[in-house]
Amino acid sequence: MVVPKAKVPDVLQLYHSGCSGDHLGVKRNLLKIQERFYWVHCRDDVADWCRKCAICAAVKGPQIRSRCALKLYNVGTPWERIAIDVAGPFPESESGNKYFMVVMDYFTMWPEVFAIPNQEASTVADKLVHEIFCRFGVPLEIHNDQGRNFESQIFQETCRVMGTHKTRTTSYHPQSDGMVERFNQTLERYVLSFKLNGMDRSGI
Asked: What is the pTM of this model?
C-alpha cells in the first residue's frame, strides 16, 4: 500500500511507538513497515524517526559499540548447553509477577522468557522443569551465575535428578555469562520503554 506523505508520521508512530512497535531499531522497524507499506525515502524516514525518539534515547543511550574479549563455547547441537538467569525486579504486574526467568540456548541463541512472582529457588526450579524440560527435553549442561537461587540445594538437586551438568560463572570471569546478560539488558530496555510509553502490561 502506498502511503501519502501526510500519513507517514502516523505509520511511523504506530510501528515504532505503538502497541506493535516495541521501540525496535531501524532495521526491524523497516522490515515490519515494508511488509505492508511503501513510500519514497521510507528508509530515511524510519531512521530519522528512530533517531529522534525521546524514549529510545532515554532507555538505550548512545549507540556506541565497544569490542571486548568473548569466551567461546564449543557446542555442536541445539540444546547441548543452555544458560539461565533471572532479570528484575520490575514493577509488580496485576498478576503478581516482578521478575523474568530467561533461558537461552548457546547453539541457536533462542531465548525463552517467563514472568515469575519471585526468584526463589523453588520457583525457578519448578518453571525450569515444567516449562523448559517438559517442552524441549533436558540439556547436557546448564550454565548460570552465582545467584543464591542457582546455588541452592533444591536447584542443584533438580539438575542432578534430571541428569544435567550444572556450571556457573566465576568471580574472575563474569563475562562468561555474557550472552544471557546481554539479552537481559535488551529485555529491561523494552520493559522500561513500555513503562515510559504508558502502556499497560497487566497480563504479564
From this structure: 0.64
